[in-house]
Write a structure and sequence with these properties.
There is one protein chain. The protein is α+β, with helices and mostly antiparallel strands and about 160 residues long. It has a single domain, classed as Aminopeptidase (3-Layer(aba) Sandwich), CATH 3.40.630. It is about 30% helix and about 35% strand. It contains four helices and six strands; from the N terminus they run ααβββαβαββ. Strands 1-2-3-4-6-5 form a six-stranded mixed β-sheet. β3, α3 and β4 form a beta-alpha-beta unit.
């Protein structure tokens, strides 16, 4: 992902927001705000013939050094590319990048009605570890979150 990809990344992010089951966020942030909240590495786009079809990136879960190998994953696929394997390709590439960067755990919080995302995470080795009821509101409606994690089989195993 390059800085110049932001307009397409933001558009795809907005498409995900519009579904009502991808994020608690209501507005796409500025690139500067998004950039400071995500790791500087481990951010990718799916691109073909100059068109971006999806993106994935990692955010730190804490500033404490003990959690330095743990990150939260975000993955978004453009409306016109959903169901075509873009999400799986992004996830597999990001998992490889995360392990190369020394990360041992990836985590995700997914709305239970986002079944496509749940299936995608399970396909690439994430496992359900919990359920948070009424963890936050979206448009004045309480939302639950299903918690998933993926432990590396290459990093942090000793």
């Amino acid at each position: 992902m390059q800085d110049s990809d932001w307009s397409n990344v933001a558009r795809i992010y907005a498409e995900g927001m519009a579904t009502g089951y991808a994020t608690f966020e209501k507005d796409v942030p500025s690139y500067e705000d998004w950039d400071k909240d995500h790791l500087s590495n481990c951010r990718i786009v799916a691109e073909e013939k100059g068109e971006i079809y999806g993106w994935a990136a990692l955010s730190p879960v804490s500033g404490r050094c003990v959690y330095g190998g743990v990150a939260e994953i975000s993955v978004y696929v453009a409306e016109n590319a959903r169901g075509m394997g873009v999400g799986k390709s992004l996830m597999q590439a990001l998992i490889t990048q995360s392990e190369d960067a020394g990360l041992w755990t990836l985590q995700a919080g997914i709305f239970p009605e986002n079944t496509a995302s749940i299936i995608l995470h399970e396909k690439v080795g994430f496992r359900k570890i919990g359920y948070r009821e009424r963890v936050g509101k979206l448009d004045q409606t309480w939302k639950d979150n299903v918690l998933f994690e993926r432990r590396s089989t290459k990093v942090g195993i000793d």
